[in-house]
Structures
1.
Amino acid sequence: MQPRIPSFSFDSPLMEAVFELERLRGDLALSDTDPELLRQIREVLQLVTSMTSARIEGNRTTVLDVVKEKAASGDGRYSESVQEVINLEQASQFIDAQLVVGQPMTQSFLREMHRIVVEGLRAEGDRTPGTYRRRAVAIAGAALDPPGPELVPALMTELVDFINEPRPSSHDLIATAIAHHRFLWIHPFTNGNGRVARLLTYASLVSQGFTNTMSVRAINPTAVFGADRERYYDALAAADSDDDRGLLDWCAYVLVGLKQDLSRMKSLGEAAFVLDEIIRPSVEALLQSALVSAPEAAALRETGARGIVRAGDLSDALPGSAATRSQAIRRLLERRLLEKMPDSPRAYRLCLTSGPLVVAVIRRLEELDFIPAIMRGAI
């Protein structure tokens, strides 16, 4: 059986989801949130996305584990569970750096994604990173056995041709859902197939322009699959029959989930929402936990509002002499609450990648229902 788009009616719920996703994509361009703040939130969401994908596969590490190990590691060595998350972050960064809108997918690109995902791992690794499997495998809990290894190269050629074939733009998202299922049905690698399939879905959305409308990752397919792990696997299994009903149900599951996620992401383009509902409550949580002082909290709120600050911008929050203010900023830098701008060492931004704020922000995003259900309790 070759990958195909099943027949469906124009007035079906599937087509309704396609139209709504296209409308929401257009709305994302209407953003007044500070670009630097959006970029930082993107990094937080990237961590959540990577952790969600790893958690679907059974990784039980927490956000605090990842943040602490990143801060403490001086030689780039991490525990297996944290390394798996870091690999997934690096694979997503690879996609963002290499793919542009309209760029065709290639097998070498998929194999490189796999190499990045499993590199340096033992239990969740692969002895031949970036290479198609050369032996038969079984999928735990699945009734269907993947095709034999001798068929994998030809099946992957078919899949990549299907992904790249010209089609009406209204069918692009449906083809993306079909490709995710087909990839897992082929199971081209010995290990890491689920993680690569979710990255393939994200890569397809990048190619379709769903992530370049503003500087935050505009859509997160892994959030859909992490909302209910059992439902994800059940929907995949139903599509294994390759009949139209099973495939359409799978596509509806993916696209309706994407629509819900994109609706949430839209609010990140609203500066008032980001500041009032995410940044300020996160800083307040640190203040209430006595992790920062009142002047430090004021400095963090001011930095969040401006995106990038210099010492003089924090004179109201950190009163006193310039030397006193510099000392206060240095303490914030040492505790990874602020970080220097790479191209301007005397300019600062919030540190949302490796310090206390990332945990506070993710907890706040969890309260706002931005975090997939599978991540609840993983903070």
Note: Residues 244-266 form the longest helix (23 residues).
2.
Amino acid sequence: MYVLGDRNVTGTYTGEIAKGRAYVNGTAKAFGGTFENGDFSYYIGSGVTSVTDKFEIEGLDKNDQILVAKQNIDIFEE
């Protein structure tokens, strides 16, 4: 879940994910995020500007291999 205006998207995961990659309206953003003990935080900054944006994130291992395909992130207003 993501609240419009937040700088980070947070959530939970399973597996050996080392980093994520976000996509906003199909445009890839930088690799990154903190993935520890089943919880993650990924800095999106001002990349999501509307509840109608398509926001997705995928999980990758330390060698940039995709472990979790793009997952849709629900966007909510404050």
Note: The longest strand covers residues 66-72.
